[in-house]
Design brief:
Number of strands: 8
Structural class: alpha+beta
Radius of gyration: 34 Å
Helix content: 40-55%
Mean pLDDT: 80
Distance between the termini: 113 Å
Largest sheet: 5 strands, antiparallel
Strand order of the largest sheet: 4-3-2-1-5
Number of domains: 3
Shape: elongated
CATH class of the largest domain: Mainly Alpha
CATH architecture of the largest domain: Orthogonal Bundle
Low-confidence stretches: none
Strand content: 15-25%
Length: 282
């Protein structure tokens, strides 16, 4: 503040003594120059602070960090703009003390009247700092499963595989399942007839698994788990594998198709419902 007053005095001295401008006009020019200077400096501060935050936090380029950077930049921007508005009003000769006091009372009134909004913002901060989920994660909230396509301090947007978008207030996110943090487990069940030689089936499946091709998405190769259920029409056997998060569905489909082809080649019967129609003659 002292430097600003010194600069203000310097400008007045230049206009009054050097340029012979009357004091009233000089005061007006000084106010304009100070406001322009304040706006310019605030613009620089916003840019520098945003760049600094981005530079510090984006050493690890993950979705959580990107989300955190966006919110910190927004908060810094609004705080700086509020301070700048107060300084500009002060330069215009407006007493800002009552404004600041009123803002405090007004903020308290809003806090009581908009508790749900405040709860949403607080929940948003906890989601960020506890790293519950980030952009791109696949989550399930209240039975709705989808990808997080937008995350703000107040609300979150989730898009499912059908293209449906659900907007949820952060304060309403109570029970959350995140499918993107750990490896996914692919499960493929297939039924065989009771007449099947189980030892021969196991040997055939081990040979199938040994030759089965995988790629970098599969982190743990296919394995035979064994018999998991005795059904009315056949015996249910299970194969499992581990993959990167949320890519196991397509490999489950592929494995089912490959198993069906393999079983046909090996002449292993897959039971299916039969309808027997008998016709009686009078």
């Amino acid at each position: 503040m002292k430097r600003m007053n010194d600069f203000r005095i310097f400008i007045k001295d230049v206009f009054i003594n050097s340029l012979n401008v009357n004091e009233q006009l000089t005061n007006f020019i000084v106010v304009i120059i100070m406001i322009v200077l304040i706006l310019f400096v605030s613009f620089l501060i916003v840019r520098i602070s945003s760049y600094t935050v981005k530079k510090i936090l984006l050493k690890q380029t993950n979705n959580r960090t990107i989300t955190l950077v966006k919110h910190i930049q927004s908060i810094l921007k609004y705080v700086i703009y509020f301070v700048v508005i107060m300084i500009v009003l002060s330069e215009l000769g407006i007493n800002i003390t009552p404004i600041i006091a009123s803002a405090g009372v007004f903020g308290l009134a809003i806090g009581f009247g908009a508790q749900s909004i405040v709860k949403d913002f607080i929940s948003g901060f906890f989601i960020i700092f506890e790293n519950q989920f980030t952009l791109g994660d696949v989550i399930e909230v209240d039975g709705f499963k989808g990808e997080v396509i937008e995350f703000g301090l107040r609300s979150t947007k989730i898009k499912n595989w059908k293209g449906q978008i659900k907007i949820i207030s952060n304060g309403d996110i109570k029970k959350l399942i995140n499918f993107s943090r750990e490896f996914s487990v692919g499960i493929v069940d297939i039924s065989v007839a009771y007449e099947t030689d189980m030892q021969l089936l196991e040997n055939s499946l081990y040979n199938f698994i040994e030759k089965y091709e995988t790629n970098e998405d599969i982190v743990e190769k296919v394995s035979y788990l064994g018999v998991v259920e005795m059904q009315d029409s056949g015996v249910l056997v299970r194969l499992i594998f581990k993959s990167k998060p949320n890519v196991h569905f397509k490999y489950e489909r592929k494995l089912r198709s490959d198993l069906l082809t393999f079983f046909k080649d090996q002449k292993i019967d897959i039971p299916y419902p039969h309808v027997i129609v008998k016709q009686y003659e009078d």
